[in-house]
Specification:
In eubacteria ppGpp (guanosine 3'-diphosphate 5'-diphosphate) is a mediator of the stringent response that coordinates a variety of cellular activities in response to changes in nutritional abundance. The chain has 737 residues and is α+β, with helices and mostly antiparallel strands. The chain is 51% helix and 16% strand.
């Protein structure tokens, strides 16, 4: 594209004008040193990108300037961030190196630019797991500097604002990625305005007709909305003025995306969405009077309009973990319409709009940064460092933690803890400390004992009962919802399995020796192939829990000693030795469905509408004539079935049948003597692989009878337990029901 001298001159004038505007609109007060740094970054970026143009044909430099403007005014970051935003594509796209940037601008700017360059190198792939892996890597740059992610969000916002000249398929791809990753991140960092804009722009490209339709209807109803806000304001102005309050009342329309979400969720039309806007009262206040004035305004509003008591949200006493503070009430406004009223001080309003940056503007010098954000970053770092979780699961868990609604619960000492909605006592225990989580034996909520699956509610006081002998079981994964708790439980279960595998290896060496089979890599490979498992650790673990027992090993030895069969098997074997054999993992082999709390095996059919496969999250639906139909939890029919026929839904999950636990009832008879009951219970509780569920004993004329219900992994463990019980002095007979 060749420009005339006049066009070049015009373009240079526009670039200079944009630069001046960048300095003028900065949220922070810029010192002379700040201005020098930004000027130098600007000149370097102009020089570096002088030959480049965007798809739309304009000079490339307009993009870094636009990103820097978002960083400076909408997000409100400091001069270092503005300089890094101006330079964010320099190392990626031009001759400049990271060393050049470090020499010219110092280590901090270079570190941020390096983080941004790393993210750009993550090539988005169609494969969701690669995309998820890239996202995980991107979050690892948070370790370098949280500003990396914030500038990346600004970069994404400008790209979304200027996507018109791109191919349609690329627009949809970038918009989907924005909804999947960047909007939730902006939400979590407290950048609500940017989150809203990202969501609306994404909808514009993913569902253009829907977006345009809602936008047009919103423009048509704007006049009516403005009149309504005027009527509402008129009613409360006199009362607010009488109290000599300095305030401003604004109407804030709901975003296109949130209206679309409501229409889909509640299955209603645009006209039926009653809260298309909220009224915001922003008041001036000193820090000491903030809370008092918020409740004063609340009282004035509710004097004039009847509040909906179930819709009061007090985020002033307990701010959200994003740092958001406000009082939200829903009142019956003029013309019988429900209206959401948000009451915020100027400080709260800035924090709601600028998030991270405003916290630092308002914090006292002696405070240690923004505690909420730091806590969140620590939790995030913990999740990132846990390599047990595969990338897709990680992203899903991470997104849950980004968007989850919060509840506030109390510790026994009265400290307040914030947890995601749906959290259980297990999540609470792990949020306090990993060791407390791992040793959890039970929980009291508001003084009453509750099961570990109990869902906590805001205001609950939770007391965790711990025991040195307690340890996680597979069931805990059904009760834990937070990423932290789940990753710690999985990690502990994995360690437990590795200990069992070590025992299993010793048992296997012994048993092979008895069969006169040498224990070496070749034999292990044969065993792995014979038992159709993946890794050597799998093999040792299954020997350890007794799934692969003496009988099965004898069958293996017999098949191996048949020379003729062995000859062909070896030929086949040599051709394909399992690749995963040395992997340090114990695989979950989903092959059986169980139903209900008791995990029963029942007859079922797989639903044709969603075709679930082993491992998918599923539920059972009891049909009228066709038995149990199994559907995926995200099946298109799931919502309809769960809402209309909740009473016919049955819990279902896939299990690895070789690791399945089963319930057995043991009957004991014998002569009653002192301490017999205690010896029996001690024997059972000392056995690591046995879980005692129910126990009853009776003694009649010196004859002792007992019945114990236990949960074990397999018959071998049960047999061992029964043999040990028989050896107790006084026990005459041990039978299984």
């Amino acid at each position: 594209m060749i420009l005339t001298e006049e066009e070049i001159e015009q373009e240079n004038k526009r670039i200079a004008k944009q630069y001046k505007e960048l300095l003028r609109i900065s949220y922070r007060t810029l010192t002379e040193d700040d201005k020098t740094l930004i000027r130098q970054a600007f000149e370097t970026a102009v020089d570096a990108h002088k030959e480049q143009r965007r798809k739309s044909g304009e000079a490339y430099i307009f993009h870094p300037i636009a990103v820097a403007k978002i960083v400076a005014s909408e997000i409100g970051l400091d001069a270092t961030s503005i300089a890094a935003a101006l330079l964010h594509d320099v190392v990626e796209d031009t001759e400049y190196t990271l060393n050049d940037i470090e020499q010219m601008f110092g280590e901090t700017v270079a570190r941020i630019v390096d983080g941004l360059t790393k993210i750009s190198h993550l090539k988005p792939e169609r494969d969701v797991s690669l995309q998820a892996e890239n996202f995980r890597k991107m979050l690892l740059t948070l370790n370098d500097d949280v500003r990396v992610i914030i500038i990346k969000i600004a970069d994404r916002l400008h790209n979304m604002q200027t996507m018109d000249s791109m191919r349609a398929d690329k627009q949809v791809k970038i918009a989907s990625e924005t909804l999947y990753i960047y909007a939730p991140l902006a939400h979590r960092i407290g950048l609500y305005n940017i989150k809203t804009e990202l969501e609306d722009l994404s909808l514009k490209y993913t569902e253009p007709e829907v977006y345009q339709d809602i936008l047009t209807r919103m423009k048509e109803s704007k006049e009516d909305q403005d009149l309504y806000i005027k009527d509402f304001t008129k009613i409360i102005t006199d009362s607010l003025d009488k109290e000599k309050l300095q305030y401003e009342i604004k109407g804030r329309p709901k975003s296109v995306f949130s209206i679309r979400k409501k229409i889909l969720k509640q299955n209603i039309t645009f006209d039926e969405v009653y809260d298309k806007f909220a009224i915001r009262i922003i008041y001036k206040s000193t820090p000491e009077d903030e809370k008092f004035l918020a409740w004063k305004i609340y009282s004035i509003v509710t004097d004039h309009f009847r509040p909906n008591p179930t819709r009061l949200r007090d985020w002033i006493s307990s701010p959200k973990s994003t740092g958001y503070e406000a009082l939200h009430i829903t009142v019956m406004g003029p013309k019988g319409r429900w209206v959401e009223v948000q009451i915020r001080s100027e400080r709260m309003n800035e924090i709601a709009e600028k998030g991270y940056a405003a916290h630092y503007k308002y914090k006292n010098e002696d405070e240690e940064g923004d505690e909420n954000l730091d806590q969140w970053l620590n939790k995030l770092q913990e999740a990132l460092e846990n390599n047990e979780v595969n990338a897709v699961d990680f992203v899903e868990q991470f997104k849950l933690n980004l968007y989850s609604k919060e509840i506030f619960v109390f510790t026994p000492k009265g400290d307040l803890k914030s947890l995601p909605k749906g959290a259980t006592p297990l999540d609470f225990a792990f949020s306090i400390h990993t060791e407390i989580g791992l040793k959890t034996r039970g929980a009291r909520v508001n003084g009453k004992l509750v099961p570990l699956s109990h869902q906590l509610k805001s205001g609950d006081q939770v007391d965790i009962i711990t025991s040195e002998k307690a340890k996680p079981t597979n069931n805990w994964l059904d009760f834990a919802n937070t990423a932290r708790a789940r990753s710690k439980i999985k990690s502990s279960l994995k360690d437990e399995k590795k200990l069992i595998a070590e025992d299993g290896k010793a048992i296997l060496i012994r048993k092979l020796k008895a069969q006169k089979i040498q224990f070496n890599d070749k034999t292990i490979a044969e065993l792995v192939k014979y038992f159709k498992i993946k890794t050597s650790l799998d093999l040792f673990y299954r020997v350890g829990i007794g799934t692969i027992d003496n009988t099965k090993l004898k069958e293996f030895a017999a098949s191996r000693s048949n020379a003729f069969v062995s000859f062909f098997k070896n030929k086949i074997r040599k051709a394909s030795v399992p690749q995963d054999i040395d992997k340090e993992e114990i695989t979950q082999n989903y092959d059986q469905l169980v139903f209900g709390q008791e995990e029963e095996k029942l007859e079922y059919k797989l639903a044709n509408c969603c075709n679930p496969i082993p491992g998918d999250p599923v539920f059972g639906f009891i049909t009228v004539n066709d038995g149990i139909k199994v559907h995926k939890k995200n099946c298109p029919n799931a919502i309809q079935l769960q809402s209309n026929y909740a009473y016919r839904i049955i819990q279902a999950k896939w299990i690895d049948s070789s690791q399945q636990e089963f319930t057995a009832v043991i009957r004991l008879n014998g002569l009653d003597n002192l301490g017999l009951v205690s010896e029996v219970t001690k024997e059972i509780s000392n056995n690591l692989h046995v879980d005692m569920r129910k126990i009853s004993f009776e003694s009649l004329n010196s004859i002792f009878k007992g019945q114990i219900t236990v949960v074990v992994k397999n018959k071998t463990i049960l047999k061992k337990l029964m043999d040990r019980l028989k050896k107790i002095n006084g026990i005459d007979k041990v039978t299984r029901e």
